[in-house]
TrEMBL record:
Gene name of this polypeptide: rimM
Domain Ribosome maturation factor RimM PRC barrel positions: 103-169
PANTHER family cross-referenced by the UniProt entry: RIBOSOME MATURATION FACTOR RIMM (PTHR33692:SF1)
Name used for this protein in its record: Ribosome maturation factor RimM
Primary location group: cytoplasm
Organism this protein belongs to: Flagellimonas zhangzhouensis
Keyword annotations of the record: Chaperone, Cytoplasm, Ribosome biogenesis, rRNA processing
Source lineage: Bacteria, Pseudomonadati, Bacteroidota, Flavobacteriia, Flavobacteriales
UniProt GO MF annotations: ribosome binding
GO BP term (any one): rRNA processing
Family assignment from sequence similarity: Belongs to the RimM family.
One cellular component (GO) term of this entry: cytoplasm
Amino acid sequence: MRKEDCFYLGKVVSKYSFKGEVLVKLDTDEPDIYENMESVFVSLGNNLVPFFIDRCRLHKSNLLRIDFEEVKDEPTADKIIGSELYLPLTMLPKLKGNQFYFHEVIGFTMLDEVHGDIGKIVAVNDSASQDLFEVEKDGKELLIPVSDEIIIKVDRENQTIHVKTPEGLVDLYLGE
């Protein structure tokens, strides 16, 4: 399995017991849907290695307590502390309406209420404090905030995102 075919689920943050159980900090708004998993991919080096789960349950708010088949003592658990966990993209819950996963809108056309077609989404930058669509139009890059106030409609069927950008933002990039 390749990372490109998976989504980031969370990270092993600590040991829970001397029997090798670990706590995973989940990166999700709905931790309860991952409570009864049978397996996950653990990132070890440059590889995603399948790990099978004996028991898995929520611990406090967004922590998952996992008892892996392959990890039954503290030294083995120590080896996976800090490792990232992944699941295949096919296991992502389907989103409706204007909700979307960043990876699914790459290649969508962005249509602005005033300017019309302002380009194709080539990436979503989520490394800053504000997530940004990276949109390309005629060799120019536009950075459009990912925001409920800006996004009017996500049209999966036609692969478009309709937006109402703040006045002057598109002109700043395209010089219209």
